[in-house]
């Protein structure tokens, strides 16, 4: 059993937004921007490390990544995103729930597949660690077609950071 960790404020806000039925993208002009953080930036090189064992959380965070993509674009910054999936997350990347008897996982499987398709459509590179697929016994051929299997997710993280991408850990 995984010990309980408090949700980060951003995740809590996202959950409240989901509960209210609102989209996870930036609000209209009344919403605050990120002018100080983005001053002088022309591109946003984000490297998202996804290492979760909970289907609904994976779906939520993938939607938040798409929202961050929209937020950058809305503020005049070109998003350039890489998403690297490691650990137990790989069990949720086939479009089929790893625990079909769990209703939340069944619903999340479809949401995750849709979110992966959407991120790929927006130009994000989506990589899956082959070590994780081996450890969690997920056949690479069963992975969603938008995903690219790489030898080692950690090596991807090191390489992308050397290229100037900024790590956003999601675990």
Write the layout of secondary structure elements.
Layout: H1 9-20, H2 35-38, E1 43-50, H3 55-74, E2 78-85, H4 103-121, E3 125-129, H5 130-135, E4 148-150, H6 153-162, E5 166-170
Parallel strand pairs: 1-2, 1-5, 2-3, 3-4
Helix pairs in contact: 3-4
Strand order of the largest sheet: 4-3-2-1-5
Rg over alpha carbons: 16 Å
- Number of helices, counting only DSSP H or I runs of 4 residues or more: 6
The structure class reads: alpha/beta
What is the H/E string?
A: HHEHEHEHEHE
Number of DSSP E strands: 5
Question: pLDDT average, as an integer?
Answer: 86
Major β-sheet annotation: 5 strands, parallel
Beta-strand share of residues = 15-25%
**Approximate shape:** globular
Helix proportion: 40-55%
Give start-end ranges of low-pLDDT stretches: 1-23
- Measure the end-to-end span: 15 Å
């Amino acid at each position: 059993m995984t010990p309980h960790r408090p949700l980060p404020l951003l995740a809590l806000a996202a959950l409240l937004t989901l509960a209210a039925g609102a989209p996870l993208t930036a609000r209209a002009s009344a919403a605050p921007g990120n002018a100080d953080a983005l001053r002088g930036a022309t591109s946003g090189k984000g490297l998202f490390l996804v290492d979760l064992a909970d289907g609904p959380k994976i779906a939520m965070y993938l939607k938040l990544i798409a929202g961050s993509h929209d937020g950058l674009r809305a503020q005049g910054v070109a998003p350039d995103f890489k998403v690297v999936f490691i650990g137990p997350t790989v069990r949720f990347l086939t479009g089929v729930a790893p625990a079909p008897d769990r209703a939340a996982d069944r619903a999340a499987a479809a949401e995750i597949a849709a979110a992966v398709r959407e991120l790929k459509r927006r130009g994000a590179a989506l990589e899956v660690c082959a070590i994780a697929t081996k450890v969690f016994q997920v056949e690479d051929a069963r992975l969603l077609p938008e995903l690219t299997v790489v030898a080692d997710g950690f090596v991807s993280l090191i390489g992308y950071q050397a290229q100037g991408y900024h790590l956003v850990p999601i675990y």
